[in-house]
DNA sequence: ACCTGAACACCGTTCAAGT
DNA sequence: ACCTGAACACCGTTCAAGT
């Protein structure tokens, strides 16, 4: 029976989670679906578009659920759910990072515009609000990609277990780094400061 | 005559600058050097090591020249020279980003340890100083990769020229984003504050 | 409309064998 | 010590032709 776009994304997401981003190839995906490689190009213009669709799938839990707290709380909520979504699948941060450059994920665009809104609510002028949003996204993607690569390195049996108790847990470290940015936004010069 | 490690890195750097990261392949590099692909594997363990050496080459101007200013000035100086180094060659930010994950560049390690020192000088405790350093590096790489991809998009003849005058110039935007982080470090709670 | 088959133009890496 | 030749096991993408 017919190949649907959904099924392709489903299988791609499974492949990613089971074998990692290096094994998420168009040919492997086609083989796994029992079709010829060319068949995928009826449903997707190219691999970038396919990866964009997978990114949208991963980011789904990060886009539903709006918060109406003050701007700091909104930034934290967005970034927490974003990180969780990235961690929920193998190489999630790396895949979404690759997608950020191509601009092929609508979910990522949604997250960016919400962060931009939060920055504007903090009193950052319109021109700089977008920059703040991208800076925050880069932080979340960078931190989580680091974290995820260490998880996979450790899973391959490297870590002595001791170092892990000396350091803070990743969630607290993530919040610490994010606070650097949020604090920066709160104190950045040139912004009309709106209390609360 | 014999192929030296230096010559391979030279040619790789040229290839990168002339044709971009997608065309920097082991086979292409070997062809350009007039050797067989296997020859490269006498001098480099794998492509990651080669890319690490190219990254070190690119980052050379960013590692010589120490500053002894206060910590804020040091962070700004490091990041300014780092961005300039990345911008000096095609896809510089993308190549160095890829290398950050593999840990195959000693130059990048040097930059990271200097940023860690600066964070420590700001009063950030030892555990968090490394995190601050990585956060800053992620910012510089993320910002510059964005900037560079736009430059290349524009060079391909897309931009209407108007939008570019409405926005601030990239160097000022870069400084703005960096100030977010520096300000955050200066105000982050829990650090023993050393004035000046 | 949707897919196959086959081709095109490539990859990174290994390794016996040569000099 | 340093390199070749050839192989191995792949890639993404296109497109005439089929149903």
From TrEMBL, chains A, B:
DNA-binding region location: 25-44
Q: Which PANTHER family match?
A: HTH-TYPE TRANSCRIPTIONAL REGULATOR RUTR (PTHR30055), TRANSCRIPTIONAL REGULATORY PROTEIN (PTHR30055:SF151)
Which key words tag this protein in UniProt?
DNA-binding, Repressor, Transcription, Transcription regulation
Span of domain HTH tetR-type: 2-62
- Enumerate the InterPro entries for this protein: DNA-bd_HTH_TetR-type_CS, Homeodomain-like_sf, HTH-type_TetR-like_transc_reg, HTH_TetR, Repressor_TetR_C, Tet_transcr_reg_TetR, Tet_transcr_reg_TetR-rel_C_sf
Q: According to its UniProt record, what is one Pfam family this protein matches? A: TetR_N
Name the chain's protein: TetR family transcriptional regulator
